[in-house]
Amino acid sequence: MTQYLKEARRAPGSEWLKDHSALLERVYLMTQKVFFVLYPVGKRIAPKLTERVVIWGEKTFKGYLFNCQMCGQCILHSTGMTCPMNCPKNLRNGPCGGVRQNGHCEVIPERMCVWVQAWERSQGMNQYANEMRTIQPLVNHALKNSASWINAFEGLDHAKFPDT
Ligand code: SF4
Questions:
Q1: CA-79 nearest atom, ligand 1
Q2: pTM for the model
């Protein structure tokens, strides 16, 4: 429990940004376009280095913004730009039946339920608002600590890029 509260504290500005999910959605779409152009080039020239750079980028930026747990199969765009792996029960489809009446978590009462936040934020998105209704497949733990962007591009995860 302490770990989750600490993580939330070390990211000033991240909650504000996540509450502006339409803005993050635009950033996501732009990043996707840039990645589609640059990744195939990097893969051809220096595949290992490219992979390390993508993993570093995800750990750094998504770690800061979303408290990313590096599951390797990112579904942020389907969950209101709120990382589902921050749910103490690690639910990939939520919420569970234990959400408190004030919208807080059953396990960590001081914190809002990740899934309540995911729902509310998803409704502010333009292109991906309805993705919240999609049933997500089980997490493939073999992909942990790998680059979710590469896994999506290569079709190694279940999520893939929604528009491809
Ligand atoms: S869904 Fe996975 S890859 Fe995406 S932010 Fe959460 S832990 Fe990281």
A1: 1
A2: 0.88
